[in-house]
Amino acid sequence: MNGIRYVRPGGGFEPQMTLFEKTEVNGASEDPIFTFLKSGCTYTDTDFDPNVFYSPLRVGDIAWNFEKFLIDKNGKPYTRYHPSVTDTATLTPDIDALLNA
Questions:
Q1: CATH superfamily for domain 22-101
Q2: Which of 21, 63, 68, 98 could form a disulfide with 81 if both were Cys (CB 3.0 to 4.6 A apart)?
Q3: Cβ(87)–Cβ(64) below 8 Å
Q4: % residues pLDDT > 70 (the chain)
Q5: How many other C-beta atoms can be found within 10 angstroms of the C-beta atom of residue 38?
Q6: C-beta separation of 79 from 70 below 8 A
Q7: What keywords is this UniProt entry annotated with (predicted)?
Q8: In this predicted structure, what is the pLDDT of residue 11?
Q9: What is the mean pLDDT of the segment spanning 57-86?
Q10: Among 33, 35, 39, 49, which Cα is nearest to 83's?
Q11: How far are the Cα atoms of 6, 11, 18, 19 from residue 15, in angstroms, in the given order?
Q12: Cβ(67)–Cβ(45) under 8 Å?
């Protein structure tokens, strides 16, 4: 992944780990895993960015980087968090509920 070399920490950094390939999370070419995740949870936002570059637009689309999905022990989507949720304390009650189920 050539782009990694030119971003922080910079200086020719090359990760020494396996990287996965980029995939589509919305639109006609979205990866099936994201279709599955989105179908199992309510959406986090009803506004569309006017600069989106894919179609079709769906109300359940992933709004931005760092949108999070919590999956239960059976592999089913349990809930989903808006990208603005950054405090892990917000996720803790849901994680505890799943661990204690």
A1: Glutaredoxin (3.40.30.10)
A2: 68
A3: no
A4: 87
A5: 22
A6: yes
A7: Oxidoreductase, Peroxidase, Secreted, Signal
A8: 67
A9: 91
A10: 49
A11: 12, 12, 8, 8
A12: no
